[in-house]
């Protein structure tokens, strides 16, 4: 007998956007049985309309939609307000995955995929977007950055940063581990909560995060690349 998942947020609303009725029905069925409230849309304009009527807690979004593709839908939704997005792509091309991450998707799944794995990823993203209890570490401060995990707010020199769920968690983890070289595998495990996955996901998110916290993203000083290992947060660089 298949074990049901407990939703990270009871009654969370998930919008499933896919023009393939079979995929949409299977995904919606698994999410429904896992305890989520599910809305469905078959194209981009319909997705935007349904999101405006009932703002979702998370969107499962197909990249290859007719007319308005998933990238544009993601951009427009993010223009209206913060919402976690898991992108679906029918192609294994790395460029497609990176494009989805570049516009702010928090995770992606390549078709064909296991519906149970997708439910686990939904649960993981929602759990990190809405933590059940405030972390004991309190507010993190370094190099002009301030991160409040309980409030899910991050600022640089007093100016609020517009971070996705994963970008926020990545920045918080780096601030908790200053001066230490963190491997991509460790970041995938600690930030994404997965012991497996495409490590290019970490690379793209680091690049996006640098674009928001570095004075010159082309010459990063705070988030340093440790060649052959991963990345190191160097708060001392701010004062150099």
UniProtKB/TrEMBL annotation:
The keyword DNA-binding applies. Residues 137-235 bind DNA. SUPFAM superfamilies: C-terminal effector domain of the bipartite response regulators (SSF46894), CheY-like (SSF52172). Keywords: DNA-binding, Phosphoprotein, Transcription, Transcription regulation. Residues 13-126 form the Response regulatory domain. Pfam families: Response_reg, Trans_reg_C. The keyword Phosphoprotein applies. Residues 137-235 form the OmpR/PhoB-type domain. It comes from the Bacteria. The modification 4-aspartylphosphate is found at residue 62. InterPro entries: CheY-like_superfamily (IPR011006), OmpR/PhoB-type_DNA-bd (IPR001867), Sig_transdc_resp-reg_C-effctor (IPR016032), Sig_transdc_resp-reg_receiver (IPR001789), WalR-like (IPR039420), WH-like_DNA-bd_sf (IPR036388). PANTHER family: DNA-BINDING DUAL TRANSCRIPTIONAL REGULATOR OMPR (PTHR48111:SF4), REGULATOR OF RPOS (PTHR48111). This is Response regulator transcription factor. It comes from Streptomyces hirsutus.
